[in-house]
Amino acid sequence: MRLEGKVAVITGAASGIGRATAMRFAAEGAHVMAADLDDDGLAKLVDELGTTSKEISVLQMDVTSREDTLRLVDQTLERFDRLDILINNAGINRDALAVKIKDETPHYLDDSQWDPVLAVNLKGSFLCAQAASVPMIRQGSGHIVNTASVAALGNIGQANYSASKAGVIGLTRTLALEWARFGIKVNCVAPGATRTQMTAGIPDKIRDALLEKIPLRRMAEPEEIAAVHLFLVSNEASYITGQVLFVDGGATVGV
Ligand code: NAD
After folding, report:
1. pLDDT for 80-122, tens place per residue?
2. Is there an atom of ligand 1 within 6 Å of 202 CB?
3. Which residue has better confidence, 255 or 58?
4. What are the distances in angstroms from CA 139 to CA 80, 146, 185?
5. Which residue minimizes the CA distance to atom 33 of ligand 1?
């Protein structure tokens, strides 16, 4: 077991990639603090793991609230006494063209689509990293893995999402520089299309076009991203910091 006794906070753990990561980390011996807005999803995760106990605790919280992120870290320390790993995974999308002109009228990607995406994906990652860094600095060790996306390189209909994920890459590189002297490694996973609730609603025609652009000709399974999280927080990755690992079936090769 590669994470025996390690304490891991995972945000967005009620669904998709976060859920798969929580299950994998628990199976690898970690104590998991699973955080999400979605209380029902967290309850299902606990049911599936077959225990309310040692390996997993859950907290309903909102990553955009500083108060909630501090509460998340406080409760983790109360329950487990230390904090070794933060997986900053919670994320949302609100896709639209930046501007669409229909019948002479401009329709803008508006504040209700821009603000929450930037708040959850970028500010939420920053707030969680700040809160987690304090016990990690005191311990002199820690791993933080942020979540970007291939969309950070640009994607039609995702100006908000792409900007948030490109921001996450800058955040990763900066925090890696600031916190290396405390023994904290900060890296970033940039998944390509992954089979989760986030991609479930993609219309067939767009899905087919998407698969055409992926050399491996399929979407990732959430467990394949969880495996990369595991690698990046394991001893095998002890000399890696400030990096972005694209896990995309080759989609960005040659881009
Ligand atoms: P998902 O929708 O299955 O899971 C996201 C989880 O985040 C949900 O459980 C949701 O409740 C939670 N969440 C949303 N807002 C939150 C908030 N304010 N506070 C706490 N929790 C919140 O999505 P997923 O596909 O598993 O995505 C996980 C991460 O991977 C996201 O950051 C996403 O942007 C990124 N990503 C996904 C894909 C993909 O194709 N699925 C591709 C690239 C990157």
Report:
1. 999 999 999 999 999 999 999 999 999 999 999 999 999 999 9
2. no
3. 58
4. 14, 20, 13
5. 91
Band of pLDDT at residue 53, cut at 50, 70 and 90: low
CB of 92 sitting under 6 A from ligand 1: yes
Question: Is the per-residue pLDDT at 211 higher than 60?
Answer: yes
Structure-block tokens of residue 171:
């955040």
Note the pTM of the prediction, 2 decimals.
0.98
Please provide residue 244's backbone torsions phi and psi, each rounded to the nearest 5 degrees. Answer: -115, 120
Sheet order of strands, 142-147 included: 56-60, 31-36, 7-11, 85-87, 142-147, 184-191, 244-247
Taking the centre of ligand 1 as the mean of its atom positions, its distance from the CA of residue 47, in whole angstroms, is: 20
pLDDT attached to residue 55: 77
Which residues have C-beta within 8 Å of that of residue 75, sequence separation ≥ 6? Answer: 33, 57, 59
Pairwise CA distance, residues 14 & 18, whole Å = 7
Closest C-alpha among 188, 213, 52, 60 to residue 121: 188
Residue 155 Cα to ligand 1 middle (Å): 18
Strand partners, 96: 158
What pLDDT shows up at residue 51? 65
In the chain, at which residue ranges do the beta strands (DSSP E only) sit?
A: 7-11, 31-36, 56-60, 85-87, 99-102, 105-108, 142-147, 184-191, 244-247
Nearest atom, ligand 1, residue 194 CA: 40
Q: Write out the catalytic residue numbers.
A: 161
Ligand 1 centroid to residue 190 C-alpha, Å = 13
Helices and strands counted in the chain (H then E): 9, 9
Q: How confident is the model at residue 16 (pLDDT cuts 50, 70, 90)?
A: very high
**Nearest residue by C-alpha to atom 39 in ligand 1:** 194
